[in-house]
Structures are given as structure tokens and as C-alpha cells.
Amino acid sequence: MPHLVAGVLLVVLCAGGAVWWTTSAQARTPTLAVARPVTVGHVLTSADLSTVDVSASPGTAFVPADEAASVLGRPMATSLGPGALLTPDAVGTAKLPAVGRAIVAVGVKPGQFPPELTAGTPLTVIVTATATQPTTTVSSPAAGTSWPATTVGVAPAATDETTVVSLEATTADAVALAQVPAGQLALVMRPAGGGR
Questions:
Q1: Which residues form the SAF domain (predicted)?
Q2: Nearest to 42 by CA among 13, 83, 2, 81
Q3: Of 41, 90, 99, 124, whose CB is crowded by the most CB atoms within 10 A?
Q4: 172 and 144 within one domain
């Protein structure tokens, strides 16, 4: 008899858990997302936005789809890539760099970065070679050293075919990146949500 009662309770708990999971998954809110890359200062238009249904915990900052009029015609405060959810603080006065962050420029040549690179793209920056300067007071990071960063802007290649990419990273990472000589970095695009 005790086993029968335990079995019935287990079935009831599983059924209750399934009902709870289904109702919480269905409680989705239409939310604004970025449909294409937008950079700092870009004035938002309806073509820049899309609507996605998200299930978010209370207190999560996002802009509901029915409040699109509140962001249209306003400048971007940060750069975002396609698919990123639009948050209230992403629109308005530019907030770059944020506290504890810095922006660093790196020079890369063709083959050292994906040509699809746009503002808002998450990256991993990797040292591909170590400096071979005979006398230097600052030691360059070893080959294979990497840092996470986000693309802020991409300046077209000049006459020497060097493209300047502005990256946002932690202050410490930006200082380390600034010490790597030009031509010794590679930029690897990562998925917008992080991941591998």
C-alpha cells in the first residue's frame, strides 16, 4: 500500500510539473528586437526592428512591441547586432564605453577578420604571433592568448589594406590588446547569444 500511495503522488507531481512548465512557456511577451546591425548614433526606423515572443522573468529589461513608438526616431546609445533584444538603455544618449569597459582600435588585414564583420558583433580576439622585437620593456601576450570583445565600428581599409576595427572590452583586456603590434591579431565571430 505505501508503494501505491508513493506512485500516485509521483504521477500527480509529474502531471502538475508538466502543467506548470506548459503554462510558463506559453506566457510569452511580444518584444522588440534588432532586425539588422545598428551602430551608436543610428536613428531607429521601423525597418531596424522586428518582434519576437520572449518568456522573461519579472524585472527583465526589454521594450514591449506595443511601445515601438517610444523608440522610433531616437538614436542608438550602443551598437547591437541582428536578433539582439532592444532594452530601454540601448536607446538615447551614447553610453560607450560603459563603466569598467574601454574601446580599443586594432589594425587587421584581409584574412585576419571575417568580411561580414559589423558593429555589435561579438568576437574572440586571438594573438596569432608573438612580437619578435629584440629589446622591449613591455612583453607582448603569447600566441594563442584570447579576449572576448564586441565590435563597435569598422573603418574601411586604407591604402595599406589595413582595416581598423574598434572593439569594446573590459578595461584590462583593452589595455592588453593595445600592446599587441598590428598584424598579430585575428578576429573570430561568435554567436550573438554567447555560446560556442
A1: 29-92
A2: 81
A3: 90
A4: yes
